[in-house]
Fold this sequence. Notes:
The protein is of the alpha+beta class.
Amino acid sequence: MTRQATVLVDGNNFYASCEAVMDPALIGRPLVVLSNNDGCIVSRSAEARALGIRMGQPWFQVKRELEQRGVLVRSSNYALYADMSQRLMSVLEEWVEELEIYSIDEAFGLLHRPAGGDLTGWGRRLRRDVQRRLGLPVAVGIAATKVQAKAANRLAKATDKETGQRMGEGVFDLGAVADPDPWLEAVAIEDVWGIGRRLARWCRLRGIVNARALRDLPAGELRRRCGVVGVRLQQELRGIACLPLERLPAAKRETCVSRSFAQPIDNLPQLREAIATYTCRAAEKLRRQRQRAGALTVFVRSSPFNGTSFYANAATVTLPLASHDSAALLAAALPLAERLFNPHKPLQKAGVVLQQLQPETRLQHHLLVPQSAEQQRRRRALTAVVDGLNRRYGSGTVQWAACGLHRPWAMRRGQLSRAATTRLADLPVVRSG
């Protein structure tokens, strides 16, 4: 007799760990990774955590302190993290029967557990394989359901408050322990998957402080507060699976690309360059998703700290023919940039949202905008060549002239590491004497 087990694998301090893979000199040293425009701390190595550095701290506030304490700093290298994520998921697919990619560094998996079997050894072998092939540390939580697996994953990374020792040593199998109650008591209510800040406060006011207390709460009371979503969460904590694996991600309804500028934009040519850049990036995403857009929205805003001079605006256009062609989307987006520009309002952020998405296999033609099969074939061939060159030689190798060459508004990343896994020019060079 076999039972099905749910596994949650996630990368430890994923951004910081990816940086250490590319630069072994970072291993064992305190390291933080910054958000867009080198704004806030969004990832910390274990050594940085031990120093008490908090997530979300603005870099300009703690820059001197980090320098004094020998903490290394890196800007977010999204190309590197996305590539390492794809490699991680490819490895995980070999270890489980079914896989659901939940986020850039997390995935759920299903496998069968022999009766009375302990999967801790399996989890340790998985961790060693990922470490050997990718150099990434991961934590493995194993249980009967998704919510339990999330709790088990947290226990795998937790430390005993009295001894300071790791409780799970990177792997924890909640389905193999004799009594799960003490372990569920060790998971604070705020750390239960699906419990937000408001619901956690509601629970605390009623003395529900951990996962076990939530599991044992009368179902009627939880249903009145949260409806069927809360009841499903509680059933999951009881070991009854209510959240199946999503083997194929749901089709996106919108695709957005937006950025804050390194410095405010106060002239139309720079705004056009920014909108063109974001539109082309959104078009690339759309082609990867195998979708077309039927409408496009451009939005802009000034700094929210400008007080009474704050400015925000948006404009939308419906495309006569749904498209994922960069040229067609640029033709629709650039006139909107001119409509939104205000010379007296320096802009801090802009973005492009592609809407009314539909599968690329379905195209409703427009009577007044004919497009022959040959025209469609030539446009597909052109975009395929451009996308292929950018994948092979690095993003931006081939780009539209409207995007500009020198971009003073571009996102500030002064501590950026090399994209050695996705750009040939960034490959490390080894010279022998």
